[in-house]
Design goal:
single chain, 78 residues, alpha+beta, 27% strand, globular
Length: 78
């Protein structure tokens, strides 16, 4: 049984901008990573995308957003 189907992942990604009033066409992904077991901010296995507004030359902390997706169940890949 899968932890998260591809459709569930797509649905989660699509609902985040709508819930937080972010226009996805004006944001670009500048970094991405997966939280490890020692990460104090996010559960291990979380997928994180650092996004910034497209038309900003010198991004301030208010212009940078982190999109995080937490898996419903954490397992180790074999």
């Amino acid at each position: 049984m899968p932890n998260m189907t591809l459709k569930e992942l797509i649905d989660r990604i699509n609902t985040v901008p709508r819930n937080y009033g972010i226009n996805p066409e004006e944001e670009v992904v500048v970094d991405a990573w997966i939280a490890g077991p020692n990460d104090k901010t996010f559960p291990p296995g979380s997928i994180l995308f650092e996004c910034v507004e497209r038309n900003v030359k010198n991004a301030t902390p208010e212009d940078i957003h982190t999109l995080s997706i937490f898996p419903p169940r954490i397992t180790n890949l074999q």
